[in-house]
Every structure is written in C-alpha cells, then in structure tokens.
Amino acid sequence: MNFTRWSARLPGTQRRAARDDHSAVPAARAEYAQDETGSGPPDAEPDGAAPGPGPAAPALENLSARDILGQLPALVALVHGPEHRVAYVNDAYAAAFGPRPSGFPAADVMPELTELSLLPLMDQVLRSGTPRTVKSRKVAAGSSYTVTCTPVSHDKDKGHEAGVLVYAVDVTDHAEAAERLRTSERRHRETAVTLQRSLLPQELEQPDDLRIAATYQPGGTDAAVGGDWYDVITLGAGRTALVIGDVMGRGVRAAAVMGQLRTAVRAYARLDLPPHEVLQLLDGLAAEIDASQIATCAYAVHDPNEGRLVYSSAGHLPILVRDEDGTVHRAEGPTGPPLGTGGWIHTSGTIALPPGSTAVLYTDGLVERRSEDIDEGVAALERALSGAKGAPQVVCDRLMRSLNITAEHDDDVAVLVVQHPARTGATAELFHNASLDLLGGIEAAPRARAFATGVLTSWRFPVELCDLGVLAAGELVANSLQHGTPPMRLGLRRTDRRLIIEVTDGDDHLPRRRRADPADEAGRGITIVATIATAWGSRRTPGGGKAVWCEFALPR
Questions:
Q1: Is the separation of the CB atoms in 130 and 160 below 8 Å?
Q2: Which residues of the chain have pLDDT under 50?
Q3: Where are the alpha helices (DSSP H) in 158-307?
Q4: Strand, coil or helix: what is 157?
Q5: Cβ–Cβ < 8 Å for 472, 533
Q6: 208 phi/psi in degrees, rounded to 5
Q7: Nearest to 235 by CA among 479, 552, 535, 501
Q8: What's the CA gap between 510 and 546, in Å, rounded?
Q9: Nearest in space to 118 (alpha carbons), one of 106, 105, 128
Q10: How far apart are CA 188 and CA 184, in angstroms?
Q11: CA 272 to CA 65: how far, in whole Å?
C-alpha cells in the first residue's frame, strides 16, 4: 500500500509543487559528504559575508510515510472502511501489542482497541470527520494511553475508502502518579472524616422535656472536610444547652480546631452561664487556638419552666422554630461577628419554644448555594420545615432531601432538630410543677417542708424518696434564708425520669461545698444535699440573684 497517498490526506498536510532540476534534494547520504582528505564541512563564510545556501530540506512527497510513522515513539495504527480493516501499525504499536495482520477488521485482530473502548469512537470519527481524543484509557495489561483518532479522507475517483488514524501515547507513568495522588487525597479525606466524626457526639443526650436528633453529612469527594459540629449538653434542673457551629476551614486542621472549640463549649456550659457569656469566653479562646481560623457558633439554652430558647449567635445563621400549626418563626435577635474576631460584646435573645413546636439549628452547607443568595436558601428551609412532621430524625431526613443534600454535596452539613413535645393523657401525668413563694422569717423553713411533703406525697413517690426530697428542700431553703435575700421561691418539678428541687433568691453569690469543722454551727447544708441527691448545682439568674437546685433519679 502506498502510504504517501494516505499521508497526503492527513488533515493539515498538502502536496508541494514539483521542483525543477535546480532545486532537487540531494540524497540524504550526500548532504554532509566529506571531501577526499576526510576534512569536515566547509569553513563558515568570512565575517560580513552573506552566508551561502545551506543543504535543502527534503520535500514531503520524497519522504515515505512508513518511515515517518515507523520512527515515531507513539503508537500508530491506520484502519480503513466501516469495518476498520487494518492497513498499518508502526513498530511502537507492534512492540506494545504485537504485530497485526493487514486487511482484517480491527475488532477481530486488535483486542486492545476494545479494551480501550475505541471502536465506537472510531465509528463516530469516521461518520463525522471530526478528530476525537480520549485521555488515560487503561488496557488489561496495566498500561494507560491517551488516544487521538483522526479521520483520513477518501478518494472516490480511485476507489479509496475513508479511514481513521489512531495515535496513542503511553501515559502510564502519569496515570500512576495521578492515581497515587488520588489515593493520598482519599486517605487524607478519610482521616479528616474519621477525626471529624470522632469529635462529634457519639450519642446525643436526650433531656426529659425535649426530643433531639442530629445529622452530619461530610462534603463530597471533591470537597475537603470542614469543621461543622453540634452538641447537646444537659445543664441540670431540666435545662438543656444546644450548640451548633462551623469552623471556616477545610481538612484535618479545621476538624482539630472544631474539636477544641466543642470541648471548650462543654466546659463553659458547666458553669451554667448565660449564652452570651459563653460565646464571649469562646471568642477569646478561638483567637488563641488559631487566629487564622474563623468560626461561627449559635448557643441556646432551653428551660422547661419558661417554654423558650435563650440564645446568642456569633455570626451564625438564625434558628428556626416551627409551631404546631406549621407556622415558622425566624430568630431575629442580635447576631455578633464570628468567633476569633474579638472586640465585640455579645448579647442574648429569646424565641418561644412552646409544647408542640420544633426548633432547627443548622450550618450554612444546608442552605448556601453558589448560584443564589443565602437568604433564598434560608427561605427554602423555612418552606421545607413548615411541612416537615414526625420524629426529630424524620424531620432531619426530610430537610436534607428537600434541600437536595446528597453524598456529593460540595460542603459539610450539620442539622440539629429539637422538639418540645405536647403531652396529653397518661404521658402528661408524668410531668408536674409546683412552687411556693417564701416570705422569709422563722416560719419559712417549716412551711417549705410541709409544702414539699404534701406535693411529693400527691405525686405518689415512694416514702424513702419523699423523705429525701423533703430533707433536700429544707436544707436548700435554710441555706437561702441564711445567705440569700428576698424574693425567695421553692420550686418542685417531676418528669418521667427525675425529681428536681430548686430554690431561688435575690442574692447572686453562689454557694460552694466546703468541709465544716465539728465545732461549726453552719456549712453542712450543701454537703448534705450533695450527698443524698443524684446531682446538684447553682447558677445566676438573668434578673439578678441565683438558683440552687438538686435532682433525684426516679426508680424505673
């Protein structure tokens, strides 16, 4: 077969006009012939003289296509006709896959084309006359190739069929390097995801008065793991802290910062401080941990006696609350700058959370999209929440589906759903409240003990628990009478799992447990309470004053 005819029809080539005898190309072996004495090429022209004519370049028609293609390091195959009958393979192709007989269909004698999925592509190239390239295709032997299929025109007058020139470059080294890089990135991502998940709560605390569920979805494989986190912290006396945050970073570093912030939040929460004071402390700590890492956070406290959330936000998205009738409210309270920026005094706001309502705390990955404003995403979440009913985990899943959060989402997503169930019937009988205002004086302690005895007896507690509850109530009231100031109030609360006794007064000095000497007449009340109760604690109240509480676990 005349390969010059094929090469002349390759795109981008054309025949040159025939040369006359004066421009004939000398034979390759005579271009640099030496003289008889064995000297080298003629000396260069003297300085300033015009250079003489150099050796003429060979014309394309005088070169053999077989020689050109045969010397290429790339793999070259030439096929013709709709069956892609083999016309030629060069030496590099034969060295890689073995010699291929001419005239047979490529599907029968060139299995490597099937392995590379090239036959359909060659059909397209033959029909469209447009070159196509596929990158890093792998054969069974393990080598990878980038292949370009170029159409070769046909000559109707001479009865020559159109063909396809297959040009393949071995990119095995590049493909293996890319695979190693992908493996490294995958391991790095898996490490970050593992660290992230290990730093999140392994099991959410379930307060008596709330039902809570959370979902964390790491970003897709093309997105590095971020620093989203959430937490639920029981504060005692039936109060619960809800936390959600987002470290503005990626990878292991962001996850590590997130873990430190979450640990700090739990520590500050144990101080039972107002939400804005917790964020104020966290703000300073965030700057010390890593000044280059900015984080947002929302911290809220639920008190079952008040039926509301008291919250503070450091650059975080607003909390949403859905009423029992489907109306959705957005927390419109003050929002400070993100943690770590410093120089800001955080404040607290409130939003109602009555029985039957549902609150949602979330990170920006749930509502932020590159193509739209984030307010549109929050509005879409409100619409999804208005129709989301069922258990907290069901609501989580519905919100994720409604906002099209999949495994390939481009950002981390954390969602915390909190429900304050409306209790009726037998369930409601397990939850009771009772309180007594104390005016002070010597009759306050006996009145408190009598009140506690009557209430605990009416709640049908065992005699032993009633006695312990009355003793604890008496000691807390006595401590308040001695060290506190009016107004004073005794509160009793029962849930399905515990009995809570709380005394409030107008003095903001918190009691502490201390060891009393045998000769001391005071200092034993808190020690007695701490000994007989399951847990005890104290906190300052927002309006000034303090609350001292203890709780007893109910027998199952």
A1: no
A2: 1-42
A3: 172-199, 251-269, 275-289
A4: coil
A5: yes
A6: -65, -40
A7: 535
A8: 7
A9: 106
A10: 6
A11: 86
Contact status, residue 362 vs residue 244, Cβ threshold 8 Å: yes
The predicted pLDDT at position 20 comes to 44
At 277, give phi and psi (nearest 5°).
Answer: -70, -35
Closest CA to 455 of 493, 495, 496, 488: 493
* DSSP notation for 358-427: EEEEE-GGGT-BTTB-HHHHHHHHHHHHHT--SSHHHHHHHHHHHTT--TT-SS-EEEEEEEEPPP-HHH
pTM of the model: 0.70
How would you class 10 by CB atoms within 10 Å of its CB: exposed for 0-12, middle for 13-18, buried for 19 or more?
middle
**Of the candidates 240, 70, 331, the residue with the CA atom closest to the CA atom of residue 78:** 70
Q: Which residues contact 456 (CB under 8 A, 6 or more apart)?
A: 465, 466, 469, 470, 492, 499
Q: What is the pLDDT of residue 61?
A: 65
Report residue 216: phi and psi, to 5°: -125, 125
Largest Cα–Cα separation, the chain: 137
Closest CA to 232 of 262, 192, 254: 262
CA nearest 346: which of 302, 309, 313, 316? 313
Q: Look at the alpha carbons of 368, 369, 374, 375 in this order and tell me if their dihedral is positive or negative.
A: negative
pLDDT score at 518 = 65
CB 119 within 8 A of CB 107: yes
CA distance 228 to 196: 8
Q: Which two tokens stand for residue 58?
A: 């060979």
Alpha-carbon gap, residue 469 to 449, rounded angstroms: 9
Q: How far apart are CA 237 and CA 538, in angstroms?
A: 9
CA distance 488 to 178: 72
Q: What is the pLDDT of residue 517?
A: 63
pLDDT of amino acid 224:
56
Write b or e for each residue in 204-226: b if 16 or more Cβ atoms lie within 10 A of its Cβ, otherwise e. eeebbbbebbbbbbbbeeebbbb
- Model pLDDT, residue 190: 77
What the block records as the tokens of 185 is 């990135």
Q: Based on the number of CB atoms within 10 Å of its own CB, is 532 exposed (0-12), middle (13-18) or buried (19 or more)?
A: middle
Tell me which residue has tokens 């939003």: 351
Beta strand extents in 451-513 (DSSP E only): 488-494, 498-505
